[in-house]
Each structure stands twice: as C-alpha cells, then as structure tokens.
Design brief:
Length: about 100
C-alpha cells in the first residue's frame, strides 16, 4: 500500500473511533450536541456535526481530509487545532447542512 494512502487510512480509522466515542457519550447523556451556548466549538463538536451532515461512516472522514471549496481549498482536519479554525469548519458544515454550497 502506498505510504500516503496508508496515512489516510490510519487517519480515517482514528476519526471513526473518535466519532463513535462522541456519539456514544452523547447518547448516554441524552444530549444531541456537546456544544453549549456561547462556547467556542470543540473538536468533538466539529466531528459530531461532520457526522450529522455526512453520516457516521467513511463519508464523514473523507470530507474531513478533502480540501473544502468553502474553506478556500483548505483541509478541514488541518483547521481543527485552533478555535478560529474550528469555527470556520463549523460555519462551513452548517452552510452545507442548510443547502448553501459555496
């Protein structure tokens, strides 16, 4: 297997595991979203919204590692390390969810 493909596969597996943990934790707590009003989006918020928009499968993972047109060609996963980046990705996901394709 090509090294780049192997890295993508490993990233996909880690993200799928994280999505599963977030979904399980929310189900156990009875919440539909981990984000509280007025708080910056966490990485978990972004992962959950990604799964809500694209499904709880490899479709969500693919979207996180694919450059987003509405993000200026940047890769969503690369933006999750900073609050501003997470907010940009959340805004992008909300737009897609609302049918606004930019």
């Amino acid at each position: 297997m090509d090294a780049k493909l192997q890295k993508l596969q490993e990233a996909a597996e880690r993200l799928e595991a994280r999505l599963s943990r977030v979904k399980s934790a929310l189900a156990a707590s009875g919440q539909s979203t981990p984000q509280s009003a007025g708080q910056a989006a966490s990485e978990e918020d972004v992962l959950l919204k990604t799964a809500e928009v694209f499904g709880y499968d490899e479709g969500a993972v693919v979207r996180l590692i694919t450059p987003g047109v509405g993000l200026g060609g940047r890769i969503p996963l690369d933006l999750l390390g900073a609050p501003k980046g997470r907010e940009e990705v959340m805004r992008y996901l909300h737009q897609i969810d609302a049918g606004v394709y930019i």
